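Budget justification, computational time. The allocation requested in the original proposal was used primarily to generate structure tokens for proteins on the priority list. As evidence of use, we reproduce two of the resulting records. The first is shown immediately below.
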Amino acid sequence: MLASGVTVHLVENGGKPSQAAKMAARRKSAYAALAADLLSSPPLSSSSPLPFLGVDCEMADYEKVKGLSDHVRLCFVQTSSRRVVVIEALTSRRGEREGGLSDELRGILVDGEVEKVFCAKRQDVAALNAEMEAGGGGESGAGKVNNVRDVQTLARNFGRKGGEGKGGGGGVGKEPGLAKVLSFASRGLVFTKRSIKKEQWWRLRSPEEMIAAAGYVQYAAADAWGTWLSYELMRKENEEGGKGWRGEEEGEEARYEELVSSLRGATAVSDVLKRE
């Protein structure tokens, strides 16, 4: 089942020079696993053949990043396929932002043959584009995130059978969070997310602090995987104009039921993930 088969890889780009070779090998292995899973997991919707990844970013709100109105620092970038999540931590040396995005991650973000799916994309995409423009740490140069989708927009504009909610929020409100989007996409299962305020995670100021905080890596991974899953579950209905959740392709209904049944009994998205 999917719930027991999602693996989280935490990799770093930056940190101590003496660890550079080891970290590069870990990144290469993690992104190779992501690519292999991406190619081996055809989407439910055969009418949209492009592979897609769930993408999310974690930021700390004290450093100004070009292109954003807020004072933030990009700390984690999470990418997810069906069974693999890679969290890239933009770690630093002596408090300086020296890591930037790895070449592996840059290649994914600019690849026009892979859809990048976000939940509330504006700030994340702006931060990623700013980081790539700055050219921090990568050999592939500047670029922009392309072929972007947003599950928040997709859920908001959904038209259920009979037209309910079409163009008017789709029953999820104007700016639904990921838990609400995933609950909507999974046909009535109710999901929650751990509270950043309650956990005091809003105090985290660096990738290093995020790695050390109990439960935060799992929380970050869940954001990317939940985004991937939301898009997988909603895309078929969206293409068919809201006529139904399941299509007519052979085996598609069984695969849909596998995805949804794997979530039953989980109240938090992170419950279905395991750390490498």
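The second record produced under the same allocation is shown here.
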Amino acid sequence: MGNDFVEADAGARLRFFAFLLLILVFVMFWDSFVSLMIPDDLFLSYDTLKVDVKKAGEQSFWVWLVIAFISWTLAAYIMRIAIRVIRSRQWPAPGMKMPFRMQVYRGRKAKYLGVSIGVVAMLLFIKPIISLYAVARFSLSSMF
């Protein structure tokens, strides 16, 4: 009995490389992204310290809210994949297009892969909640 393989799909490969390019651009412009959250000229004088901290807290809250929305969307998509893998007991799930040629795993190994993908999705869902709580607490405490 030979191993089964799922052949590569050109469209999936294009989406995969576009996603990698998006991550690369995000990493390259990380400093600019951080300066959106906390401006460089934040603590110039003691008189405007309270106003500037409040402004920085509000800015960082909205930026983290956008990051949380992106993370929750990605978590929902990854959880959908995990559910499909666990139900079908096959990795990759039937009908999934892969960017590269991939061996098909069935049975217990596929179930464990599906569960581990589900754990990653849960972490992607929980992490922004903790971060948003911390940022909201900072921005509220800086108002007083």
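A brief technical remark on that second record: The chain has four helices and four strands.
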